[in-house]
Amino acid sequence: MKHVDQLERGSLGHELQGAVSDLMYQVGIALYDAGRLAQSERAGAIALDLAHQAEDPPARARAYDALSRVSLYRGDPLRAVRHAQRGLRVPDLPPSRLSSLHMRLGRALACVNGGPIS
User: Does residue 24 contact residue 16 with C-beta atoms inside 8 Å?
Assistant: First the structure.
């Protein structure tokens, strides 16, 4: 992740940006599973940046989904709501991604004003 973070991302072609975005998404999930939430959030932010540069809507939605998950478990449900809402605004998403983003949004909204996180 450190090496990707130091890359001049704009110099990568769209296909490579998309592939590295996917890699950073996977790294973020592994870090999330390991309980390293700050690093997972950073990997998600890199994935999102690369997905924007690659002009890859499904990758953008996937990154927003991951960022929403991490934000909620870091105790910031409002930020989790914003990420889920941004993901839902990405056009032409498959039903599975829309379902996941709606679930993230619902979970985050349930936690606003001190609701449970389980």
Answer: no
Could you tell me the two tokens for 41?
């959030």
Is residue 113 classed exposed, middle or buried when 0-12, 13-18 and 19+ CB atoms within 10 A define those classes? exposed
**Six-digit token pair at 77?**
């449900």
Q: Domains in the chain, ordered, with CATH?
A: 2-111 (1.25.40.10)
Tokens 């998600």 map to which residue? 44
Question: Measured in whole angstroms, how far is the alpha carbon of residue 83 from the centre of its chain?
Answer: 8
**Sign of the C-alpha dihedral computed for residues 116, 113, 36 and 93 taken in this order:** positive
Give pTM, 2 decimals: 0.88
**Average pLDDT for 54-80:** 95
> Residue 16 has what pLDDT?
83
